[in-house]
Amino acid sequence: MIKQIPKPVSGGLILSYKCSAECRHCIYACSPKWSADWILREDLEKILKQLSGKILSNTFGPHTTGLNYGLHFTGGEPFLNFELLCNAVEIAHELKIPSAFVETNCFWVVDDKTTKEKLKVLKKKGLRGIMISVNPFYLEHVPFERTERAIRISLDVFGLWGDFIGRLQGAG
Ligand code: SF4
Asked: What distance in angstroms lies between residue 164's CA and the mean position of ligand 1's atoms?
């Protein structure tokens, strides 16, 4: 008997397996050694169109974010290709995909000014929040001051509903 696969109500879209880090716990074995092989713009559009209308918004509405709803952009490390990340957010916004957020290890959060600028650009394009990866494995690759800076500035840019999740497992 063939079982019907349920429609996706949330999801994570991997833009590339390339990462600035090489965490020991990474479920996808992401690393700087991967060739970038970023998702093609036409594939991005095709997949997001397929997800449009299926992804459910977070419990508190489409402008808020949560782990179990909405769509997140991830990798690898999506901020390695900021232009592509911006494109992905724009397309998702045009398609009215709710509760879109990005997952990052914060390697790029080197100073207040550029961090705030990048987050504001993404917010303007339709991003609703950010998920910040933090646990002892990341600390081997990302100085904790960058994680702290990302949390502080993200709170300022996205407000209360830009969730900050200390991840204990997985990738991103
Ligand atoms: S866990 Fe995240 S930050 Fe670490 S290597 Fe994997 S994708 Fe990169």
From this structure: 17
